[in-house]
Amino acid sequence: MTVHCRVATIADLEMLLEFVREFHAIEKLPFDENIDRDVLRHFLEDESLGQAWLVQHGDEAIGYMILTLGYGLESRGREAFLEEFYLCSKYRGQGIGTQALAFAENTCRVLGVRALHLEVDFENPGAQRLYARRGYQCYHRFLMTKQLVAPVL
Description:
Layout: E1 4-7, H1 13-27, H2 33-45, E2 50-57, E3 60-72, E4 77-87, H3 96-110, E5 115-118, H4 125-133
Parallel strand pairs: 4-5
Antiparallel strand pairs: 1-2, 2-3, 3-4
Helix pairs in contact: 1-2
C-alpha cells in the first residue's frame, strides 16, 4: 500500500487533535483537550519549531508525525526529534510506517538535519523492529526529562 505525507496546516487542527488523543491514550500519555489544542495551534503557526505531517492513503488521513527542530553539539549541527508518530491500528504492519519514516528522513536531509532522534516505548516491540530496520540505534543512554513550568510574567 502506497501512502503520502502532506504538511498539516491550521485547517487540520481538529483532525490532528483527535489523532493525538488516540495516540496519547494508547501510550498512556497525558492529554488535555484545551492545552493540547493550544500547543498544536502554536506549533502549526510557527514553522521554525518544526513540521507536522498527515500520513494519507488517498484522501484519507490515517496517521500523523510531529517533527521538532533543534541544534546539538553532539550532532554537530541541526538535529530533529520525531516527537510523535502514529498510525491508526488497521494500517500498521503493512509497510506504511517504513514509507512515512523514509519521508521524514528525506525531509530532514533537505532541512540540513544531521541527526534524527525518536523515542519508542519499551513495551512496543513492533515499533522497535521498524526503527531498527530503518537504522535507528540505542546509544546506551537514558533519556531523562524534567517538566518545567513557565514563569508567570
